[in-house]
Design goal:
The complex is a heterodimer of chains A (123) and B (85). Chain A has 123 residues and is an alpha+beta fold. Chain A is built from six helices and four strands. Chain A has one domain: Glutaredoxin (3-Layer(aba) Sandwich), CATH 3.40.30. A four-stranded mixed β-sheet of chain A has the order 2-1-3-4, sandwiched between helices. The longest helix of chain A has 13 residues. Chain A is globular and about 45 Å long. Chain B has a three-stranded mixed β-sheet. The longest helix of chain B is centred in the first third of the chain and has 13 residues. The termini of chain B are far apart.
């Protein structure tokens, strides 16, 4: 399977015109997979303003996003057009405080107290 | 060879890990998307190897994906990786 040009263009525009984008299965309000749910849950809890893209709604995007980042799994988080990681990496970065730093460096607003609470509960 | 064995073999060959644990976690996803009868759909891999030194998180994951190969990765529904040196 290869990506259609349309899908690639669409993905490129989406990740470049939104500061934070999560490609996921389902929506941020109703995730359809445990791994997507975990990352959306972290971002929701931290009060991050992000765009969610449901890959289950479009097969071209579902395949296209894997080719775009050369990454075989969903969810995928993008900040300022850059691929950050999937569920394992985002979980690790949340607990280590690296995600806070990444948001600060990129001017993304988030609730520091909420992030600290996640770390306290999982420390 | 089962998928578990294939994953183990490829990771041992590629990284000579000091510690390697490949767990079939499919049962805890029974009834969820991607579950296959007989398991071997959801895996948890814990790997510790010197080969991951000086590599970013993304580079570590990419190295594991590459060692497993596209075909095996596409057969697995979910792969959770815990990678460190």
């Amino acid at each position: 399977m290869t990506t259609t040009d349309d899908a690639k263009t669409q993905i490129d525009e989406t990740v470049k015109s939104n500061d934070v984008v999560l490609y996921m299965k389902g929506s941020k309000a109703m995730p359809q997979c445990g791994f997507s749910s975990r990352v959306a849950g972290v971002l929701n809890y931290m009060g991050v303003d992000y765009k969610d893209v449901d890959v289950l709604a479009d097969n071209d995007i579902r395949q296209g996003i894997k080719d775009y980042s050369d990454w075989p799994t969903i969810p995928q988080l993008y900040v300022k057009g850059e691929f950050v990681g999937g569920c394992d990496i985002i979980t690790e970065m949340t607990l280590s405080g690296e995600l806070d730093k990444l948001f600060e460096q990129n001017g993304v607003t988030y609730d520091k107290d909420a992030a600290d609470k996640i770390r306290e509960a999982n420390g | 060879m089962t998928r578990t064995e294939r994953i183990e073999t490829r990771l041992r060959e590629a990284f000579s890990p000091a510690h390697l644990e490949v767990r079939d976690d499919s049962e805890s996803h029974r009834g969820h998307a991607g579950y296959q009868e007989g398991g071997e759909s959801h895996f948890v891999v814990v790997i510790r190897a010197k080969a991951f030194e000086d590599k970013s998180r993304i580079a570590r994951h990419r190295a594991v994906h590459e060692a497993l190969g596209k075909e095996l990765v596409s057969e697995i529904h979910a792969l959770s990786l815990d990678i460190d040196t």
